[in-house]
Amino acid sequence: MIDQLARIILFSTLCAASLNASAQTVRFAVFGDIQEETAVGHQKDLALAERINEAEPEFTVFIGDIQGGGPCTDQQREEAVAVFERIEGPLVFTPGDNAWTDCLLRGKGDWDPLERLAKLRDDLVPVGKSLGQKPMPLTQQDGDYREYRENARWVKGNVVFVTLHMPGGNNGVYPDRYAFDEYERRNNANLAWLQRAYQEVEDIDAQGLVVFFHGNPGWDDIYWRATAYRDFKSLLAYEGAELGVPILAVHGDTHEFTIDKPLMFTDGRTRADHLTRLEVFGSPERGYVVVTADPRNPELFSFTAVEVKGHE
Questions:
Q1: Residue-wise pLDDT tens digits, 227-254
Q2: Whole-model pTM above 0.85?
Q3: How many CB atoms sit inside 10 A of residue 7's CB?
Q4: CB 219 within 8 A of CB 251
Q5: Are 205 and 198 in contact (CB under 8 A)?
Q6: In the chain, what are the domains?
Q7: Distance between CA atoms of residues 198 and 38, nearest Å
């Protein structure tokens, strides 16, 4: 009788522990597009990092673009490093277009974009872990696409988080650009990495998925005309719906804080209700968004936007 009672107590304890684990709430912060290329602007970015620390998120994701339309200089990258070093918790970096894919354009300094990308990786994408004063371990893309270590994945509170190197500027491709071969390989890497995240959602029976990337993929193009984001949108819409869990897509690029459900299937009439889009603040506005993933919330995700004025 005692042994049977002990087994019942042990089983009840394990069930309670399992329920508590699956009910864990996760709070994280996202920000991006810090592009005021002045000494005053840098001080504002440092102050923004301190404001994020006050929110005490479990981790923070920077969603891309550490400079604006000026020349691609080492100074902008070094100033971004200083901002990210202020973040007290883990900080995950996702590249945008202004600091590398655009660096061959007029007025940007005639740099080799791949050389600029290598510098970003050296300074902002450590191997196997995040940035921040308290880095967290990350699973980074490996195998045939291991050069894209900025594509990372981690799990918190039974939610899968994944970053994709998908910048603005039509995913780094322009009609007259050298960049199409580079785009094709990176696009294939991104699609493979997102599919790996889908697999992890299924393997661990996750309650949701968050996808971080920089470029606005043209949500308003409801008929999916040919763009360099088309493959990604298809994977989000169709295989994403089959996962059966809420998906949050977080990006920057077009500098307009937005929360909505903008993804349509290719018929242009049917909305992809499984996907919510969050676009973060962007220069000249400064701010961050705290996202809460709470399994008790029928929508899973809720949002608190904080706009930071001046030197606050």
A1: 899 999 999 999 999 999 999 999 999 9
A2: yes
A3: 10
A4: no
A5: no
A6: 25-308 (3.60.21.10)
A7: 41
